[in-house]
Design goal:
single chain; mainly alpha
């Protein structure tokens, strides 16, 4: 077999492992919480630790590939991701798991930043289109079946195996990469932007940490105020470093084009709305409704499969329909889908989510390929790598800040609303009177069913579960309303900012509507399902 096809196999193996591991984690979170006695904040960090390091390292990883060769860099990413997966599976505490997830994010950033570049250097002409199509199918398939696979593994052999399964896949991918993938000459003399990397990472970490801990520590506390101020200062320093730097990780001149800002806004709002809500959807299905991980994974299929089916159709439309229309429409549908999911009540079944799942699935399917196309079409070809990397970074920032921000709202409301529901019944008042701090921790941490199992009186046990359902659904509706507003801001912003005259032709010689979607892999941004 020709070396270029081995390259495609190696890249697809690594990418499938990377994306599958992101999506399978969602449905395993309640089991992880129970096994490691994790708090709700710990659950947030299971997702955010990965998203933060992926966002922080993505642009720098692309530079490393240019400096030291993409084949070797990709192999290092595979090894790091696989070893981090092993540590995730062996974790005995939330801290170890979250540190291992952060290491996974570093490996994932290295793989993600070099995967399409490896395909581009191995293929040309029509074969490149075929290779990218195969890559897109693998990406979309991993995203679509992730919740179901995660549910099956978690229900069948345990949550640790969602990480252990990466080891044989990673070993095969590393072997193919080192033995079959051709090395390419290093064409670019690049340098690492250490100042930009440090200030960007520090700013994001301070912001997310403040959002996650704000309710527990007090929003007016010295720690939280200091973190928020520190985040702002570090972000200002990052912007100065990028503006003055000789070889910045993010070229700020890109944002002179309003369309680049529009693509960044679309990437951020898509992730900060429906994708950030996946954590709370999973908790609703498993903790509130009591579904198993596999049953929860099945319920996600209408959304993920519809996004998978719609994406290639939307990708073809990007060469015929202006991107501002497609992107605005896609995000507007996401907003409508989120709005449809604000009607959940304590006695609802999962079917109340189905209309929203279907509409969101179509919206995601339209938005993802349009974002990928726009990211490389609104800049000259020589800047397309940085532009697409910036869009992917904004996706991960959206996931991290979205989960943390929504989590701050969640923890501030769930306790008071559940306690109010408990106070409405005699049995509930009995539970509240004797529950104490342990009960409060179970309510805010999602461990109500475990707490209820230790209550000997059936009526009191039922009262606690019903009160939590009432409190959770009311809070959930509020979170979904926030997600609706975020997606709507993205729809309006992208429609206004993404101007057709900002698009660049495939030769980089000016704007061309016909080329608005040309040259971009429609599947590139399917990874946003994780972020």
């Amino acid at each position: 077999m020709d070396r270029k096809w081995w390259t495609l196999i190696a890249v697809c193996c690594g990418t499938f492992m990377l994306l599958l591991d992101i999506t399978v984690v969602n449905v395993a979170l309640p089991d992880i919480q129970g096994a490691l006695h994790a708090s709700f904040a710990d659950l947030q960090w299971v997702v955010d630790a990965y998203a933060l390091t992926l966002a922080s390292f993505l642009l720098t990883a692309g530079v490393l590939g240019d400096m030291y060769g993409r084949r070797g860099t990709f192999a290092i990413g595979l090894v790091l991701f696989s070893l981090a997966s092993l540590l995730c599976g062996l974790a005995t505490s939330p801290l170890v798991l979250n540190l291992s997830r952060a290491a996974q994010g570093v490996g994932g950033a290295i793989m993600f930043a070099t995967s399409l570049a490896l395909i581009a250097q191995a293929f040309s002409g029509r074969e490149r289109g075929t290779a990218i199509g195969v890559y897109g199918a693998v990406v979309g398939g991993a995203v679509a079946i992730g919740p179901l696979v995660g549910g099956a593994i978690t229900s069948g052999i345990g949550w640790r195996w969602i990480f252990f399964i990466n080891l044989p896949i990673g070993a095969v991918a590393v072997g193919i990469t080192l033995s079959k993938v051709a090395s390419a000459p290093i064409l670019a003399a690049r340098s690492i932007d250490w100042a930009g990397f440090a200030t960007f990472t520090g700013s994001l970490f301070c912001l997310v940490f403040a959002l996650v801990q704000g309710n527990a520590k007090g929003w007016g506390s010295t720690l939280i105020v200091g973190l928020l101020v520190g985040s702002a200062v570090l972000m200002a320093l990052f912007l100065v470093a990028e503006w003055k730097g000789r070889d910045p990780m993010l070229d700020l001149t890109l944002f002179k084009r309003p369309a680049v800002i529009g693509v960044a806004l679309g990437s951020f709002t898509l992730s900060a709305s429906i994708f950030a809500m996946f954590l709370y959807l999973t908790l609703y299905l498993q903790v509130v409704l009591g579904l198993s991980p596999f049953q929860a994974g099945l319920r996600f299929l209408p959304l993920t499969m519809l996004a998978f089916v719609v994406a290639p159709v939307a990708g073809k439309l990007t060469v015929r329909v202006p991107s501002r229309i497609l992107m605005g429409l896609g995000l507007a549908l996401v907003a409508v889908g989120c709005a449809l999911m604000t009607r959940v009540h304590a006695d609802s079944t999962w079917l109340v989510l189905l209309p929203g799942f279907l509409v969101c699935g179509v919206g995601i399917g339209i938005t993802n390929p349009t974002l990928a196309s726009g990211a490389v079409s609104v800049v000259p070809p020589q800047q397309s790598g940085m532009s697409s990397g910036a869009a992917s970074t904004f996706r991960q920032v959206g996931i991290a800040t979205g989960i943390a921000g929504l989590g701050a709202v969640f923890t501030s409301q769930i306790l008071s609303r559940t306690q109010a529901a408990l106070a409405a019944t005699p049995a509930g008042r009995l539970v509240a009177a004797h529950g104490g701090a342990r009960l409060e921790g179970a309510i805010t941490g999602g461990g109500v069913r475990q707490a209820a199992a230790h209550i000997p009186v059936p009526a009191a046990r039922t009262a606690l579960i019903e009160a939590y359902r009432t409190g959770y659904t009311a809070t959930f509706n509020h979170l979904m309303a926030i997600a609706t507003v975020v997606a709507l801001i993205g729809a309006v912003g992208t429609a206004l900012l993404i101007r057709q005259r900002d698009f660049v032709t495939s030769h980089g010689d000016g704007p061309g509507p016909a080329d608005a979607g040309a040259g971009a892999p429609a599947s590139e941004s399917a990874a946003a399902h994780a972020g």
